[in-house]
Design brief:
Layout (H helix, E strand, L loop, with lengths): L9 E4 L18 E4 L9 H13 L8
Parallel strand pairs: 1-2
Amino acid sequence: MTRDYPDPELLIRTSGEQRVSNFLIWQLSYSEFIFNSKMWPDFDGEELKACIKTYQSRQRRFGGL
């Protein structure tokens, strides 16, 4: 089902929950996670920009140390 698509680079989880609930568990193995405390209806463009800025500041190691 997802083999024709690249794995996600970033997962943003809203509502403050720090779990993925078995969502795309294999595809997310090298993804970056951002857990945002805002609820989905309150998550706006500014929040999205802040999450992307945080993602851009990270150094991805793809499982390395």
